[in-house]
Amino acid sequence: MKLTGKTAVYGIIGHPVKHSLSPLMQTAAFEALGIDAVYVPFNLAPQNLKEGIEGLRVLGVKGFNVTVPHKEQVAELVDFLEGDAEFLGAVNTVKNEEGQLTGYNTDAEGFLRSLLEEGVELEGKKALMFGAGGAARAVGYALLKGGVKFLHVVNRSFPKAKALGELLSRRGNVLVYPLRDSVVETLLDEADIIVNTTSLGLHPQDPQLFDYSKIPEEKVVVDIIYNPPLTPLLKAAKERGCKVINGLGMLIHQGAVAFEIWTGQKAPVKVMREVLEGELYG
Ligand code: ATR
C-alpha cells in the first residue's frame, strides 16, 4: 500500500474498538477497487465523543463507522440524519462532505440484504424476534420494512419489549411478549421466520434462550451472532431441517452499504466476505 498526500482517510469510532472487524473488511474493499484510502480504528472514550467528532470533521476524515457505545449519541451530534438513522435514533455510518456530517444507519439495510442474498422473502410473512436491545431495534425495523405481515417480539425484560414495540408499531403490526416457554411455544408455531438478536449463544456456557427442541421443522431461523458460526440455536434449528442464517451476512452488508455511501461504488462483497471468513473461521 502506498500512502500519499491524497490518500483519503476513513475509520471507525468505538470504545473499545480493538475487536472490530471493520478495518480488515473495509481495507480489503478499498484495495480490491484500487481506491486510494485507509480505514483506521479510533478508540474514543464517551467523555471525549463530542471533541472526537469535531476532530474527525475538521481533519477531513471522509467517513467513519460508529459502534458501541456511541451510536445513539452520534445521532445527536451530526448535522443531518438520513431516514433509517432518524427513525432508529442511532447512527452507524457518517459521511463527511466538506465539514458537513450526515448520519446513516446501515444495519437494517444490511440485515435485509443478508436475507435477500439467502433467498429469503419477507413480504406477507410472520416474524418472531427475540431481544429488545439496540440490535433488535434495527432488525425489527428491517423486518417491518421488508414487508412482514406482523412481528412478535419476545424479551426477558418485558418493559424493554414494550418500549421497542411502541417504537416499531409506527412501521407495522407489532405485539410484544415476555420470555416464557409456554408463550414461546405457540409463537414458534405461528412464525415463518425466527430471529435471535440477544447475546445468548455467544459463549459456550450460555443457557438456551428457550427450549430449542420446540423449534418446528422447516422454518427460517436467523441468529445475528456470527461467531460461533452456528450458535446452539442455529445448530438445533439445522438439525430440525430449518434454513439457518448467521450474522456474518449482516456484518458484511452493513459494511457494504457504508462503503457505497462513502464511495458511490458498488462494494466488493465477495472480497469482504472472504477476508472475514478467513479471519473468523480460517
Ligand atoms: P445489543 O445492542 O447487542 O442489542 P443490548 O442492548 O445489551 O445489546 O441487548 C441485549 C439483548 O439480549 C436484550 O434483549 C437482553 O434482554 P433484556 O432486555 O432482558 O436484558 C438480551 N439478553 C442478554 N442476556 C440474556 C439472557 N441471559 N437471557 C435472555 N435475554 C438476554
From TrEMBL:
<feature type="domain" description="Shikimate dehydrogenase substrate binding N-terminal">
    <location>
        <begin position="12"/>
        <end position="94"/>
    </location>
</feature>
<feature type="binding site">
    <location>
        <position position="224"/>
    </location>
    <ligand>
        <name>NADP(+)</name>
    </ligand>
</feature>
<feature type="domain" description="Quinate/shikimate 5-dehydrogenase/glutamyl-tRNA reductase">
    <location>
        <begin position="121"/>
        <end position="199"/>
    </location>
</feature>
<feature type="binding site">
    <location>
        <position position="247"/>
    </location>
    <ligand>
        <name>NADP(+)</name>
    </ligand>
</feature>
<feature type="binding site">
    <location>
        <begin position="131"/>
        <end position="135"/>
    </location>
    <ligand>
        <name>NADP(+)</name>
    </ligand>
</feature>
<comment type="subunit">
    <text>Homodimer.</text>
</comment>
<comment type="similarity">
    <text>Belongs to the shikimate dehydrogenase family.</text>
</comment>
<dbReference type="GO" id="GO:0019632">
    <property type="term" value="P:shikimate metabolic process"/>
</dbReference>
<dbReference type="Pfam" id="PF18317">
    <property type="entry name" value="SDH_C"/>
</dbReference>
<dbReference type="InterPro" id="IPR036291">
    <property type="entry name" value="NAD(P)-bd_dom_sf"/>
</dbReference>
<feature type="binding site">
    <location>
        <position position="254"/>
    </location>
    <ligand>
        <name>shikimate</name>
    </ligand>
</feature>
<comment type="function">
    <text>Involved in the biosynthesis of the chorismate, which leads to the biosynthesis of aromatic amino acids. Catalyzes the reversible NADPH linked reduction of 3-dehydroshikimate (DHSA) to yield shikimate (SA).</text>
</comment>
<dbReference type="InterPro" id="IPR046346">
    <property type="entry name" value="Aminoacid_DH-like_N_sf"/>
</dbReference>
<feature type="binding site">
    <location>
        <position position="107"/>
    </location>
    <ligand>
        <name>shikimate</name>
    </ligand>
</feature>
<feature type="binding site">
    <location>
        <position position="67"/>
    </location>
    <ligand>
        <name>shikimate</name>
    </ligand>
</feature>
<keyword id="KW-0560">Oxidoreductase</keyword>
<comment type="pathway">
    <text>Metabolic intermediate biosynthesis; chorismate biosynthesis; chorismate from D-erythrose 4-phosphate and phosphoenolpyruvate: step 4/7.</text>
</comment>
<dbReference type="GO" id="GO:0009423">
    <property type="term" value="P:chorismate biosynthetic process"/>
</dbReference>
<feature type="active site" description="Proton acceptor">
    <location>
        <position position="71"/>
    </location>
</feature>
<dbReference type="GO" id="GO:0050661">
    <property type="term" value="F:NADP binding"/>
</dbReference>
<dbReference type="InterPro" id="IPR011342">
    <property type="entry name" value="Shikimate_DH"/>
</dbReference>
<dbReference type="Pfam" id="PF01488">
    <property type="entry name" value="Shikimate_DH"/>
</dbReference>
<dbReference type="Pfam" id="PF08501">
    <property type="entry name" value="Shikimate_dh_N"/>
</dbReference>
<dbReference type="InterPro" id="IPR022893">
    <property type="entry name" value="Shikimate_DH_fam"/>
</dbReference>
<feature type="binding site">
    <location>
        <position position="226"/>
    </location>
    <ligand>
        <name>shikimate</name>
    </ligand>
</feature>
<keyword id="KW-0028">Amino-acid biosynthesis</keyword>
<feature type="binding site">
    <location>
        <position position="92"/>
    </location>
    <ligand>
        <name>shikimate</name>
    </ligand>
</feature>
<dbReference type="GO" id="GO:0004764">
    <property type="term" value="F:shikimate 3-dehydrogenase (NADP+) activity"/>
</dbReference>
<protein>
    <recommendedName>
        <fullName>Shikimate dehydrogenase (NADP(+))</fullName>
        <ecNumber>1.1.1.25</ecNumber>
    </recommendedName>
</protein>
<dbReference type="InterPro" id="IPR006151">
    <property type="entry name" value="Shikm_DH/Glu-tRNA_Rdtase"/>
</dbReference>
<dbReference type="GO" id="GO:0009073">
    <property type="term" value="P:aromatic amino acid family biosynthetic process"/>
</dbReference>
<keyword id="KW-0057">Aromatic amino acid biosynthesis</keyword>
<dbReference type="InterPro" id="IPR013708">
    <property type="entry name" value="Shikimate_DH-bd_N"/>
</dbReference>
<feature type="domain" description="SDH C-terminal">
    <location>
        <begin position="247"/>
        <end position="277"/>
    </location>
</feature>
<feature type="binding site">
    <location>
        <begin position="20"/>
        <end position="22"/>
    </location>
    <ligand>
        <name>shikimate</name>
    </ligand>
</feature>
<dbReference type="GO" id="GO:0008652">
    <property type="term" value="P:amino acid biosynthetic process"/>
</dbReference>
<keyword id="KW-0521">NADP</keyword>
<comment type="pathway">
    <text>Aromatic compound metabolism; 3,4-dihydroxybenzoate biosynthesis; 3-dehydroquinate from D-quinate (NAD(+) route).</text>
</comment>
<dbReference type="InterPro" id="IPR041121">
    <property type="entry name" value="SDH_C"/>
</dbReference>
